[in-house]
């Protein structure tokens, strides 16, 4: 890295090579930690702190603790020639002794440790062959033990290979001096009204406190209580992410969009042809969508609804508005199965409409694919339903007015933004409707969905009965198999879901194959089908069709059936290894049964023994059939990090904020963001740049 001229006007923006001890090589390594300029050093905060404020007498050492000690060398021995390993015994007159083990020690280094010399060490105490020992501790030869004592806690920074802790400490101290003591201090963007009401320190104080904590805060830090200084930075970081998403929404809403108007007679005719009446919640949400689509600015709306709450028909009403206004609709589902199911529903609901409803997935090849692409391009197809294949470069729309994305959490934030790019017609941007059956607790929705307006279908169609759920140890597997036999004898159908760690689809499929084989042996009179993600689409379709037609009694499946299966006669579901899945996912899976008006059951076949939390989690599923309540409980038990996971957050990485530790801050973020939007819009961009960088990944619109 090239050094910039010495007379650079702003020390904050000097490259890190301006700090003594940081050469070009270290600078390249620091870049991996996102540190390029002097001011970046200040936002690289300590992971934890070490207490070197007192020397522990050797007779008071406890294994497993970290301590600062001081003693005189009794003897030093080379124990392993090859590794230059040295052992040294020290004593301090307290009656205690400690062994120090050093590796890769030079002859010169070991010769320094002469008997009688006084040495101070900092490190972890553990049991060794010859009593208590410290392995490769930091050490210093001292005349006076007082020289070892540091009155403030010592920061420990996250490291990158090739940059030592002491080099980072030294560089950070210099950076602090340069930035905080010069007139060009780091700019505090947060307005006073947000800081005062929270009793937060200024940015300057916060950074200073965290890098060089004053002695009076040691107790608080060591007890793990987050300092207001840390809270303040986490608050600022959450705020920056929230603002970035909001800004993405506001920017998108600046574009013109087609006005989609649904006239009353068309709507009435559509509703009258449905075999049911919309619930009040469906009507309300449909109204919200209608109002959005009637604007000349694009809708960005998320519909959250519990499993089976009837989201699809609400999306169909939006598609009807698009159709009535001369625009096309693209509906994207995460799996073939779900896309096919939507395709069947839409084909039925729009049978009388003067347009073509088409299906498009990666599996569609050759002539049929050509015809589909042609119909989308010339506008003869008004509605297309498919998988993410819909958004490949080869797909062109005549006049796309509405995009519906189902099960949005499977598509990351970034994919969602990329989709917005698609389908601009004549400078107009399509309206976007996103549907999810995974209820996200309100506080977390703030981080994930603040670029969307949210509607909730909080009512199930009448007559739905809760799925009676019980947890059964896998030791009672034979009993469960017996229950299936009995169930099938009553002309009912069932699912058997094999789960494994979700990432490993291959293993999941293998497990499903084995289970199907074992069940076929155990239940020779039951017709058993198997469906998993590695089968060809046509094979899957054939099995699903057989299950729908009642030519198959028991469907063994992987979690591919989580979404998209709607077979009213299937009222029993066995879920293997439920302890491995999130509660919301389990709730969604069991939502496959209980869709008709008959009694339905879910058996959670867990691997004993279950942990305490494992038991509590399954108990929640037994007690509740409300997806939102379940999601809140899951959040309580597992914490936000687990619940969101990387998949659901769309890989939001925080520098400082910790979803677990700083959870209660989330609640206050939307109001603080609103204050900034209303009264201090000029600080939005600098805050985003500070915490997220200049990358436009949130605002790619
Ligand atoms: N108001 C209603 N009254 C009765 N049945 C309804 C109503 N709305 C939808 N349904 C039916 O309920 C079933 C579930 O609807 P839909 O598939 O839209 O649910 P969903 O909210 O998408 O659920 P999931 O997330 O489980 O797929 C479908 O068979 C649908 O036809």
UniProtKB/TrEMBL annotation:
Q: Which UniProt keywords apply?
A: ATP-binding, DNA damage, DNA recombination, DNA repair, DNA-binding, Helicase, Hydrolase, Isomerase, Nucleotide-binding
Q: EC number(s)? A: 5.6.2.4
Coiled-coil spans are none
Biological role stated in the UniProt entry: Plays a critical role in recombination and DNA repair. Helps process Holliday junction intermediates to mature products by catalyzing branch migration. Has replication fork regression activity, unwinds stalled or blocked replication forks to make a HJ that can be resolved. Has a DNA unwinding activity characteristic of a DNA helicase with 3'-5' polarity.
- In Pfam terms, one family for this protein is RecG_dom3_C
Single GO BP term: DNA recombination
Q: Record's family?
A: Belongs to the helicase family. RecG subfamily.
The UniProt catalytic activity note for this protein reads: ATP + H2O = ADP + phosphate + H(+); Couples ATP hydrolysis with the unwinding of duplex DNA by translocating in the 3'-5' direction
Q: What protein name is recorded for this chain? A: ATP-dependent DNA helicase RecG
Q: Which GO MF terms are attached to this record?
A: 3'-5' DNA helicase activity; ATP binding; DNA binding; hydrolase activity
Enzyme class name: isomerase
């Amino acid at each position: 890295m090239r050094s910039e001229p010495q007379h650079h006007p702003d020390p904050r923006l000097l490259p890190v090579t301006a700090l003594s001890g940081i050469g070009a090589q270290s600078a390249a390594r620091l870049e991996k930690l996102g540190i390029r300029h002097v001011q970046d050093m200040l936002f690289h905060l300590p992971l934890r702190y070490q207490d070197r404020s007192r020397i522990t007498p050797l007779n008071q050492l406890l294994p497993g603790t970290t301590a600062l000690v001081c003693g005189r060398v009794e003897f030093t021995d080379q124990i392993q020639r090859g590794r230059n390993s040295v052992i040294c015994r020290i004593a301090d007159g307290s009656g205690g002794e400690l062994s120090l083990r050093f590796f890769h020690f030079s002859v010169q280094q070991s010769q320094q440790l002469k008997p009688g010399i006084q040495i101070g060490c900092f490190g972890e105490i553990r049991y060794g062959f010859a009593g208590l020992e410290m392995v490769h501790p930091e050490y210093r030869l001292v005349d006076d033990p007082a020289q070892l004592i540091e009155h403030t806690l010592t920061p420990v920074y996250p490291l990158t290979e090739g940059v030592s802790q002491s080099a980072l400490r030294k560089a950070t101290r210099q950076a602090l001096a340069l930035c905080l003591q010069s007139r060009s201090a780091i700019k505090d963007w947060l307005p006073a009204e947000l800081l005062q009401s929270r009793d937060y320190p200024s940015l300057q104080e916060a950074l200073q406190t965290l890098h060089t904590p004053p002695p009076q805060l040691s107790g608080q830090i060591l007890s793990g209580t987050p300092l207001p200084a840390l809270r303040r930075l986490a608050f600022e970081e959450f705020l920056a992410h929230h603002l970035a998403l909001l800004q993405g929404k506001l920017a998108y809403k600046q574009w013109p969009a087609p006005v989609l108007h649904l006239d009353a007679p068309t709507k009435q005719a559509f509703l009258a042809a449905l075999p049911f009446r919309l619930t009040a919640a469906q009507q309300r949400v449909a109204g919200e969508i209608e109002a959005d689509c009637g604007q000349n600015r694009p809708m960005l709306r998320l519909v959250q609804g519990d499993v089976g709450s009837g989201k699809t028909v609400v999306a169909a009403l939006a598609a009807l508005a698009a159709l009535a206004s001369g625009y096309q609709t693209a509906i994207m589902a995460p799996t073939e199965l779900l896309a096919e199911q939507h395709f069947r529903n839409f084909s039925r609901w729009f049978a009388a409409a003067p347009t073509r409803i088409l299906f498009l997935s990666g599996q569609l090849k050759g002539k049929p694919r050509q015809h589909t692409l042609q119909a989308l391009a010339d506008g003869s197809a008004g509605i297309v339903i498919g998988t993410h294949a819909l958004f490949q470069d080869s797909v062109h729309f005549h006049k796309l007015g509405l995009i519906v994305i189902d099960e949005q959490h499977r598509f990351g934030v970034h994919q969602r933004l990329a989709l917005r790019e698609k389908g601009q017609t004549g400078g107009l941007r399509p309206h976007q409707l996103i549907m999810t059956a995974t209820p996200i607790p309100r506080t977390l929705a703030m981080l994930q969905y603040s670029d969307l307006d949210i509607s909730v279908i909080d009512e199930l169609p009448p007559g739905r009965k809760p799925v009676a759920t019980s947890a059964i140890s896998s030791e009672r597997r034979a009993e469960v198999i017996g229950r299936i036999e009995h169930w099938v004898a009553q002309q009912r159908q069932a699912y058997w879901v094999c789960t494994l760690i979700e990432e490993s689809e291959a293993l999941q499929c293998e497990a499903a194959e084995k289970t199907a084989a074992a069940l076929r042996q155990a239940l020779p009179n039951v017709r058993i089908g198997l469906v998993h993600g590695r089968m060809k689409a046509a094979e899957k379709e054939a099995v699903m069709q057989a299950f729908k037609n009642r030519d198959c009694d028991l469907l063994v499946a992987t979690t591919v059936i989580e979404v998209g299966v709607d077979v009213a006669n299937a009222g029993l579901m066995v879920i293997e290894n439920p302890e491995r899945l999130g509660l919301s996912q389990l709730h969604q899976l069991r939502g496959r049964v209980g869709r008709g008006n008959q009694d339905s059951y879910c058996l959670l076949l867990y691997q004993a023994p279950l942990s305490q939390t494992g038991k509590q989690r399954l108990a929640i599923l037994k007690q509740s059939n409300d997806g939102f309540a379940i999601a809140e409980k899951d959040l309580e038990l597992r914490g936000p990090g687990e619940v969101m996971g990387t998949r659901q957050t769309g890989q939001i990485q925080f520098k400082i904020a910790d979803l677990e530790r700083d959870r209660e801050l989330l609640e206050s973020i939307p109001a603080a963001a609103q204050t900034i939007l209303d009264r201090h819009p000029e600080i939005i961009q600098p805050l985003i740049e500070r915490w997220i960088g200049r990358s436009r990944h949130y605002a790619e619109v």
